[in-house]
Design brief:
- With about 325 residues, the protein is of the alpha/beta class.
- The protein is about 35% helix and about 15% strand.
- It contains 9 helices and 10 strands.
- Strands 3-2-1-4-5-6-9-10 form an 8-stranded mixed beta sheet, with helices on both faces. Strands 7-8 form a two-stranded parallel sheet.
- Helix 3 packs parallel to helix 4 and helix 5 crosses helix 9.
- It starts with 14 loop residues before the first strand and ends in a 27-residue tail after the last helix.
- The relative contact order is 0.14.
């Protein structure tokens, strides 16, 4: 059976923090969670735009300023959220940038890796103790099919100082999102309350593609009716990962159509490289060093069972 927004359970009493929620996928995710009773926090870079977005959503919605390109801002946002919300049920790491020209964050990280991975890594680590006591809490991180394109974790040049490829840097950041999710789930399993899950929107018609080279952008625009879906549809894999009672930690959700470009959300498989535990753990250690954030969950000492991220040969359709 196809999963639709009608299957989102009531979210009354739950607190959901969503990054990048003033537009696109994040806005649609926030809108639906609020409509189903959640108290939603739009964690956004531009507070004024966040307030305008909040005014368009029915329900309990507030705004927290958050600039993922600045670790100082991430720490300030985490402090603000801790002061206003003693518990968090859903942390949805949605914000992102794609194919940006070569540039760095305020802390000197390559923009895509710094924003898409390191900013969310730090935010999650700073907020995780607010989720751990909450049964059924989840950390949902939005990846992309781009994690398969020229993608690896380039430890010898993480910040792309020697050369730069927009697509490979984006692929690295989205692969990092998945590896972070899988390693986080491994560490969370012993606690039994919080799950780490990943999702991707297929090819959705949002502002994310604004930095795509002109030729590719024109091609996407021409093919849009065939290969893309509206942001409202692109948000469904995230919503399923966040709310479906049958979801397990370490799973990955995306569209069920051809090449996962569009369609209804189902359980999907990420690239074989994403399941490399050694690289996951090395990336985790490097991310701790770069951000200065240590998580309140240590490295797992035992093999996981039902919550272990399934490899390509183990996943079934949801």
């Amino acid at each position: 059976m196809k999963w639709t927004e009608q299957q989102i359970p009531r979210q009354d009493g739950r607190v959901a923090v969503i990054t990048g929620a003033n537009t696109g996928l994040g806005f649609e995710t926030a809108r639906r969670l609020a409509e189903h009773g959640a108290s939603v926090v739009l964690a956004v870079r531009d507070a004024e735009k966040g307030e305008l977005a909040a005014a368009r959503i029915s329900g309990d919605v507030s705004v927290q300023e958050l600039d993922l390109t600045s670790l100082d801002s991430v720490r300030a946002a985490a402090a603000g959220l801790r002061a206003s919300h003693p518990r968090i049920d859903l942390l949805i790491n949605n914000a992102g940038v794609m194919y940006t020209p070569k540039q760095t964050t305020r802390d000197g990280f390559e923009m895509q890796f710094g924003t898409n991975h390191l900013g969310h890594f730090a935010l999650t680590g700073l907020l995780l103790d607010l989720l751990l006591p909450v049964p059924g809490s989840r950390v949902v991180t939005v990846s992309s099919t781009g994690h398969r394109i020229n993608a690896a974790i380039y430890f010898d040049d993480l910040q792309w100082e020697r050369s730069y490829s927009r697509s490979a840097a984006y692929g690295q950041s989205k692969l990092a999102n998945l590896m972070f999710t899988y390693e986080l789930q491994r560490r969370l399993a012993a606690h039994g309350t919080t799950a780490a899950v990943a999702a991707h929107p297929g090819i959705s018609n949002t502002e994310l593609a604004r930095n795509t080279p002109p030729v590719a952008r024109r091609l996407i625009t021409w093919l849009a009716p065939v290969i893309t879906q509206p942001a409202a549809a692109g948000a469904l894999p995230t919503l399923r990962a966040a709310t479906d009672p049958s979801v397990l930690g370490g799973q990955y959700y995306g569209p069920d159509g051809l090449a996962e470009r569009r369609g209804s959300p189902r359980l999907v498989t990420s690239s074989p490289d994403s399941y490399d535990v050694t690289v996951q753990q090395r990336l985790w250690a490097v991310s701790e060093d770069l951000t200065g954030v240590r998580f309140p969950v240590g490295r797992a000492t035992a093999e996981l069972t039902t919550h272990e991220p399934a490899g390509p040969e183990q996943l079934t359709r949801g």
